[in-house]
Design a protein that fits this description.
5 strands, 3-stranded mixed beta sheet, two-stranded antiparallel ribbon, 2 domains
Length: 306
């Protein structure tokens, strides 16, 4: 009798265990294969191939830049934010990256344009999500470990990328220092944001013009012959390794992009190089040009990489 009861209870226990095991396996499978929630995934169904769709969405990005960015690189964030349709168009552009595979881009110019556009678009979206603000440090998260409300991580070919990862893990690996004159973090201390998208077919001209414009800006480069000083943007200090490393090497590397009357600085051995304070003020059209904010106590974490 007791033995029969024991077998019956054991059989019930085994059945319950099997049910629990099967249910657990089903949950694991469902989680594994279910679509993951990401910041920007899926722009709807389209019969167009991903490459064609990418070209279409690049035109959208180009139109948005023409509409909201002026010749000085300042953005009309207020007007952009007040247009739900254009905010959605930006979201659709960012979402389109999830269907693009940069590894299929065979030319360096195509890859550079792809990632530069991605970086700048993510930056603008983060700012729009936290606008109004007057300081980019309050608006843009570069750290891949942060996931604050409103921060954007871009999904590309199934992988998520932060601004930090796009800049340091991808773009800097191309050994193309002019990317530092194309990436815009949303501050006035950054290179100006172009009012057009980066285009692989015109990328060389765009990068070259960016570099010349950067050093034509007195806030980024100036020479005081009386004091024997060359004042450079701190970007040249933060990323010195991308421009040759030591200060004399940096000066020689940037010489082709300097104004004509300043290219002789490399011939003088008495010039002292100093770095200006970085201006973290937002590149906002509705805000007048403000004096630079005091320099941060330490190098921004997202810059201390290489």
């Amino acid at each position: 009798m007791r033995l029969s009861i024991w077998f019956a209870r054991s059989r019930q226990t085994l059945i319950r265990g099997a049910v629990v095991l099967v249910a657990s396996l089903l949950i694991v499978v469902a989680v594994q294969f279910a679509p993951k929630l990401r910041a920007f995934v899926g722009w709807g169904h389209s019969s167009e191939p991903p490459v064609v769709r990418g070209e279409v969405m690049l035109k959208v990005w180009n139109e948005l830049l023409h509409r909201y960015v002026d010749a000085g690189g300042n953005v009309d964030y207020a007007r952009w934010q007040d247009s739900p349709d254009d905010v959605k168009r930006l979201d659709d552009y960012l979402a389109s990256f999830s269907h693009q595979d940069p590894h299929q881009l065979t030319k360096k110019s195509q890859q550079l344009a792809f990632w530069i556009n991605a970086y700048n678009a993510v930056t603008i979206r983060q700012i729009l999500s936290k606008y109004p603000t007057n300081n980019v440090q309050n608006s843009v998260s570069h750290d891949s470990g942060k996931n604050a409300e409103g921060d954007v991580r871009l999904t590309i070919s199934g992988a998520d990328y932060s601004l930090d990862e796009i800049e340091h893990s991808i773009l800097r690996q191309f050994s193309e220092p002019r990317v530092h004159f194309a990436l815009n973090c949303g501050s006035r201390g950054c290179p100006r944001l172009l009012d057009e998208a980066y285009d692989a077919e015109r990328l060389e001209d765009q990068l070259e013009q960016n570099a010349r414009d950067f050093f034509a800006d007195k806030s980024k480069f100036s020479v005081d012959e009386q004091r024997g000083e060359v004042k450079l943007s701190p970007i040249l200090n933060w990323y010195a390794s991308d421009f040759g490393g030591a200060t004399p090497d940096v000066l020689r590397r940037i010489a082709p992009w300097l104004p004509d009357d300043a290219r002789s600085i490399n011939e003088s051995k008495n010039m002292r190089v100093i770095y200006s304070d970085y201006d973290w003020t937002l590149n906002d059209q509705t805000q007048g040009t403000e004096p630079p904010l005091p320099p941060p106590d330490s190098l921004p974490p997202h810059l201390d990489q290489k």
